[in-house]
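Quick start: read one record
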Amino acid sequence: MVYLVRNKQDLDKQLALAKDKLVVIDFYANWCGPCKNIAPKLEELAQQYSDRAVVLKVDVDDNEEISGDYNVTGMPTFVFIKCGEVLELFVGGNPDKLVKSMEKYVSDVDSTEQRRTSSHLESEEMCSAAPSASSSDTVNAEVMCDLSEHDQEATEAMEAMEAMVDQ
């Protein structure tokens, strides 16, 4: 389901509720032809990935402050966010680009979940295999996994930003 954002406070609330899911924000205008054309594809993707992504729509005419915060200069503009970090921003009604970006970042969400689950299982195995292991050893192992996860995400975000600059 696509959620229509009413104002800045509503957007902040939706971003917080998304937690570690991928958030896709569609900045659109009612008078924008390409926005209308891509809307059905966005709705389809929102339903397809509803367990891993949140899709929000922001009307630029009703929410100029939010549009300014994201430097929206054309419509539609799609912003991909995870854990409060902008992963990608692109302008235009290209359904193929929307699908590819959505698939890329949803699979990144899946990879993150798999790493967390794997890390959690490894930590449990460490505790059960070595009852003498202190809880600080387990915490340290989890922290190291979380840090490596963030390093990978930061690297991917930087690569995405560099690719946008090169275009």
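Confidence is low (pLDDT under 50) at residues 112-150.
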